[in-house]
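Long-time lurker, finally posting.

We've been working with DUF3307 domain-containing protein (Euzebyella saccharophila) and I want a structural starting point before designing mutants. I don't trust myself to interpret raw outputs, so I'm hoping someone here can both generate the structure tokens and explain anything notable. Sequence follows.
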Amino acid sequence: MILFTKLFLAHLIGDFLLQPGRWVIHKEANKIKSKYLYVHVLVHFLISMVLLWDLDYLLPVAIITFSHYLIDLAKLYATPYFKLKSVPFFIDQVLHLIVIYMVVYYQNLSPHTAMLFSKIDWGLVTAIVFVSFPSSIIMGKLLEAMSDKIELDHKSLPNAGKYIGIIERLFVLMFIIMGRWEAIGLLIGAKSVFRFNDLKESNNRKLTEYILIGTLLSFGLAIISGIVYQAF
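Top reply, 14 upvotes:
Generated this for you. Predicted structure of DUF3307 domain-containing protein:
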């Protein structure tokens, strides 16, 4: 585990701490001809070797470094085909982690992977999934009759309310599992403070009631999910 941790740390340092924005821009513009692509890969290699400080790991680090070069190069050419640059970015990061994992545990890859899957708390996974998009859809159905009577705020970010709700429910679920019920009250208070100015300026009783009902529903679904998870 310590080997994977050190290589993962090297990846974080090389990809995020020691990669200036101008390197990224230069790589996107010049792709395989960019000198910073090769400097970036070399930095990864050096950081990994320094953290491991053992020449016995030279071959594994070389394999990871070469795969890093190939993955980054593929991302540079694939990114223009994606509408959102975040998609190839996350695919890139996942592939890097998979390579590190496979190199570290190549001797017992299947047994170790099976062991990891056996330790997954599927009840927790189900609770997390439920409080995300399924809960958003359920709330949308429950509030459908009311939402038609509320004037839309065209200045809002697209789907901002949905993602705020998902994040707050995840926090509530986490607080319940940790047994920190008081933190839920703090979260409600913080949300009230942020919403106060909007409601004050709009002076819209229907909007106030709609937001209040939506907030209570959101927190209620998360609390029920946390209680059910702990019960079973």
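Before you design anything, note these points.
The chain has two domains: 2-118, 122-231.
The first helix runs from residue 2 to 17.
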